[in-house]
Design goal:
Blueprint lengths: L2 H10 L5 E3 L7 H14 L3 E5 L2 H10 L4 E4 L3 H9 L6
Parallel strand pairs: 1-2, 2-3
Helix pairs in contact: 2-3
């Protein structure tokens, strides 16, 4: 089952929890802590900013579905190329 399909399943079972690191949180150490907490707590997904380095780091840290947020369309398109599951 794909990562996004597992999130959809959690939604349909009314047990989905998406942890949000923040659209404007570019603090790498803080994002690492949020991702580790999400992974260790059984969260269903993680939502991060559209920073190239942060996306790559998070994708290496976890197999959770990765949501990426930005108000710049080009950043969202690039995030999908880098491994975002949803934008």
């Amino acid at each position: 089952m794909s990562r996004i399909e597992s999130f959809k399943r959690a939604l349909s079972e009314k047990r989905a929890v998406k942890i949000i690191a923040g659209i404007d949180n570019f603090d790498v150490e803080n994002v690492k802590k949020v991702v580790m907490a999400a992974s260790n707590s059984g969260a269903s997904a993680i939502d991060i900013c559209a920073d190239t380095d942060i996306i790559a780091m998070v994708r290496q840290m976890t197999d959770l579905p990765l949501f990426v947020s930005s108000v710049v369309p080009q950043e969202l398109a690039h995030a999908v190329i880098l491994g975002a599951d949803a934008v």
